[in-house]
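Figure 6 in text form: structure in, sequence out.
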């Protein structure tokens, strides 16, 4: 609904919910320590902490992931219910998502597909380099026509069908439309997609659509509709965590190579820039495949010559926390004695979060930081160092 005041031009009037973002400085408050925070910040932290409880341990996860992000570029992405519009807001969130996804899943690969004018187009191949996807994302500036869910699923399926069945093959669709312009019976495509052991999750920017819900149910994905921009970012970032592996997924040993980085090797062109004819990519440094001696700039990557998966030891170590997550800290009430956070040393007032192993107290900020970013308890690690 619109609200029109006397003397205002009707063309200058916006939506009533857009007023929510005006004068945000009035909502800022200051706590007893002099720190600035929003009044609902504590409730947001609480909600994030509740989601951490949903992460179950001792569950088989698809650690080697191949994901295509499908972005809607139809005319509906020009709507301004997100600031400044849906397209710009989605691009900003996806830039952060590409970085976070590769950081949390270093032995996985991700690609980008866009859909507009009833067609689907692949902008970047599956890769573990977020810079490639950011460059492709920067080219998404024009929204035209209708989106096509069927063409998007078929293009993603075509690019992932040859991948090994032990890897997790996923599609994440950012869907801003309420319709889908499809050339054929989409339910046949959904059935084929499900039989290929692929998973499709959809994040809706407008309202719930029955077709999107059906796709996610039949492929064991997640379907959510955003409430606002923070909720949108939260839903996208949830895809960084590996999903549970399907019951009929294979379990196999994977041969991997651990190449050394040489700075004085032969003067060659790396395999990742064969199509680029610029002289800057011809040099003596790079990672050389231990099996065929092909050179690459960045890892992880699958060797284009021999097919060997090339990684570094830290890449495998960073995937460790998904299989063995940090135990949840126990929430207790602050006792009468003065207590300090073991990490940031602030004074703890009401709620205290205690590690069940080392019994050290933490504030809610450090609790979330330990579980979402650090994936280790500082108290437990200090004891290991001292011993």
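Output sequence:
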């Amino acid at each position: 609904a619109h609200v029109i005041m006397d003397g205002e031009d009707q063309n200058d009037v916006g939506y009533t919910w857009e007023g929510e973002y005006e004068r945000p400085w009035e909502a800022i408050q200051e706590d007893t320590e002099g720190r600035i925070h929003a009044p609902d910040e504590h409730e947001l932290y609480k909600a994030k902490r509740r989601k951490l409880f949903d992460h179950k341990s001792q569950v088989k996860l698809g650690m080697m992931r191949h994901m295509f992000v499908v972005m809607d570029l139809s005319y509906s992405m020009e709507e301004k219910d997100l600031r400044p519009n849906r397209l710009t807001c989605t691009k900003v969130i996806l830039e952060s998502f590409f970085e976070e996804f590769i950081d949390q899943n270093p032995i996985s690969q991700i690609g980008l597909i866009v859909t507009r004018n009833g067609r689907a187009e692949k902008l970047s191949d599956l890769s573990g380099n977020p810079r490639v996807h950011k460059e492709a994302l920067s080219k998404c500036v024009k929204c035209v026509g209708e989106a096509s869910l069927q063409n998007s699923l078929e293009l993603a399926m075509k690019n992932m069908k040859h991948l090994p069945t032990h890897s997790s093959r996923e599609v994440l669709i950012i869907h801003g439309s309420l319709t889908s312009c499809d050339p054929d019976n989409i339910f046949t495509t959904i059935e084929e997609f499900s039989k290929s052991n692929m998973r499709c999750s959809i994040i809706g920017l407008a309202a719930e659509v029955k077709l999107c819900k059906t796709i996610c149910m039949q492929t064991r994905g997640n379907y959510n509709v955003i409430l606002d921009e923070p909720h949108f970012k939260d839903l996208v970032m949830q895809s960084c965590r590996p999903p549970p592996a399907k019951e009929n997924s294979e379990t196999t040993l994977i041969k991997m190579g651990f190449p050394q980085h040489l700075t004085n090797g032969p003067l060659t062109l790396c395999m990742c820039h064969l199509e680029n004819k610029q002289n800057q990519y011809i040099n003596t440094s790079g990672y050389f495949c231990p099996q065929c001696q092909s050179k690459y700039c960045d890892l992880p990557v699958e060797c284009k010559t021999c097919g060997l998966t090339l990684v570094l030891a830290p890449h495998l170590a960073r995937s460790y926390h998904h299989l063995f997550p940090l135990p949840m800290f126990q929430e207790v009430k602050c006792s009468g004695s003065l207590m300090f956070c073991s990490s940031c040393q602030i004074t703890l007032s009401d709620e205290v979060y205690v590690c069940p192993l080392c019994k050290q107290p933490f504030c809610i900020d450090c609790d979330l930081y330990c579980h979402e970013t650090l994936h280790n308890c500082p108290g437990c690690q200090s004891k290991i160092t001292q011993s």
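Caption detail: Residues 1-10 have pLDDT under 50 and may be disordered.
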